[in-house]
Amino acid sequence: MSYANIQLFPKVSYRFDSVDSTNAAAIRAINAGEWPEPGAVFWAEGQSQGRGQGGKHWHATPGANLTVSIVAYPSHLPLHALFALNQLAGIAVAHTVQAFLPAEWQDAVRLKWPNDVYVGQQKIAGILVQNGLRGNQLAWSVLGIGLNVNEAAFPAELAASATSLQILTRRAHDREAVATQLWQALSASYARTAPDQLAALGDQYHHLLYRLNVAAHYREVATGQSFQGTILGVDAAGQLRLGLEDGTEKAFSLQQLLFL
Ligand code: BTN
Questions:
Q1: β 13-19/41-47 pair status
Q2: Does the pLDDT value for residue 251 go beyond 60?
Q3: How many CA atoms lie within 13 A of 84 on its CB side?
Q4: Rounded to a whole number, what is the distance in angstroms from the first to the last CA of the chain?
Q5: I need a surface site. Which of 8, 128, 170, 243 has the fewest CB within 10 A?
Q6: Mutational pocket test of ligand 1: of 14, 145, 148, 163, the residue with most ligand atoms within 8 Å of the beta carbon
Q7: Could you read off the pLDDT of 12-55 as tens digits, one per residue?
């Protein structure tokens, strides 16, 4: 098999004024046998049931942001390397955000595991990757991205923890320009899912990790106990590796851990 054609260029765009969820719309098209072409973009101005990680709702004021889902068929990826999809999407969105921020803020753009995009202590983008299998092979993947571009103000419960390009730079941004940057960044990082590039993809992700090598507090969901840990990285299965105070190391899945 040749990996030279591992690329993701958006050629087709399905635009909706309003839809339940762009991820759901893309998955419906796939399940209906329409097989949107690789890189096809489902783009909505507004979503009535925008989906976030862990069944949460995704807030976005209609017409202000990017709420998009990109279809890919990464059948070259072995199932044990699925987390590469979260990594590639996170890296691409982080690089897109960096492109619209001043040079002195570049280091503040981080990936809060698994793939929330942060600027400083505030979330600017969320990513929901959904995959479908055929037998024990990856058949399709939908990369759902919500990027806060021109959100001017968030509801009270999000005001402290969320931000947008407009809030940070005090000016509105052309969403088409942000989208063009995003497609380029996605194509570049998608190419890095080729087998001989996966290690480089993992390194890029590692260096963008929020709180990397920083001691901070976490809570284990099962016990309710809080503890101090230091993020060491992410393992091949996508679990977060924390160094503990007693010198040991433990890996956590998303359901097992809360950031404090
Ligand atoms: C998260 O932060 O929990 C993930 C949020 C992902 C939101 C995007 S918006 C476009 C796409 N469609 C959805 O329903 N969700 C994703």
A1: parallel
A2: yes
A3: 25
A4: 45
A5: 170
A6: 145
A7: 899 999 999 999 999 999 999 999 999 999 999 999 999 999 88
Q: What is the CA radius of gyration of the chain?
A: 18
Report which residue type is found at 255. Answer: Q
pLDDT of res. 5: 55
Q: Does residue 9 contact residue 183 with C-beta atoms inside 8 Å? A: yes
* 54 C-alpha to ligand 1 centroid (Å): 11
- The predicted-structure confidence for 218-243, as pLDDT tens digits, reads as follows 999 999 999 999 999 999 899 999 99
Would you say the CB of residue 161 lies under 6 angstroms from ligand 1? no
User: How many Å separate Cα 186 from the centre of its chain?
Assistant: 11
For residue 62, the Cα-to-chain-centroid distance in whole angstroms is 20
pLDDT computed for residue 2 by the predictor: 47
Looking at ligand 1, which residue's alpha carbon is closest to its atom 9?
A: 146
Instruction: Please determine, for the modelled complex, whether the ipTM score is greater than 0.90.
Output: yes
User: Across the strands, what pairs with 128?
Assistant: 144
What is the number of the ligand 1 atom nearest to the C-alpha of 50? 14
* DSSP per-residue letters across 166-186: HHHHTS---HHHHHHHHHHHH
Amino acid at 244: L
Domains within the chain, CATH numbers bracketed: 13-208 (3.30.930.10), 215-259 (2.30.30)
Cβ atoms 70, 41 nearer than 8 A: yes
